[in-house]
Amino acid sequence: MDPVIHAQARLRVVAALSQLGSGDRITFPRLQEILRMTAGNLSVHLRKLEDAGYVEVTKTHRGRTPATLVNLTARGRLAFDEYVHSLRSLITPGDGVR
Questions:
Q1: Which of 2, 3, 33, 80 fits a 20 to 30 Å CA distance from 63?
Q2: What strands, in cross-sheet order, belong to the sheet with 65-72?
Q3: C-alpha count within 13 angstroms, C-beta hemisphere, residue 40
Q4: Which Pfam family, giving just one, matches this sequence (predicted)?
């Protein structure tokens, strides 16, 4: 299990971002609203995911208004897919183990 993704809050973040199309981004406030997380809590978890190369956080402007956009990187998508595969293998009976 990937310890970066395994933390509940980060798993929620990565799961939400995995629903975006490849290359699509979501605004920080919208992600915060979807996940019902405080800005500080979300920021901390995004930083850990960003440090691992799983998410990209882009600060830009929309007109004169600052905007923070978040997307799942290809590396993050692969890590999430592998995480989900690992979970499924844990809960799926097989190999005669009971």
A1: 33
A2: 26-27, 65-72, 55-62
A3: 0
A4: HTH_34
Distance CA 80, CA 98 (A): 27
Q: Which domains does the chain have, with CATH numbers?
A: 3-88 (1.10.10.10)
| Residue whose C-alpha is closest to residue 70's, from 34, 25, 37 | 25
Residues shown for the chain: 98
Give the global pTM: 0.87
Distances (CA, A) of 86 to 9, 20, 75, 78: 18, 22, 16, 12
The model's pLDDT over 45-77, given as tens digits with 9 standing for 90+, comes to 999 999 999 999 999 998 888 999 999 999 999
Buried b vs exposed e over 12-23: b needs ≥16 C-beta within 10 Å? bbbebbeeeeee
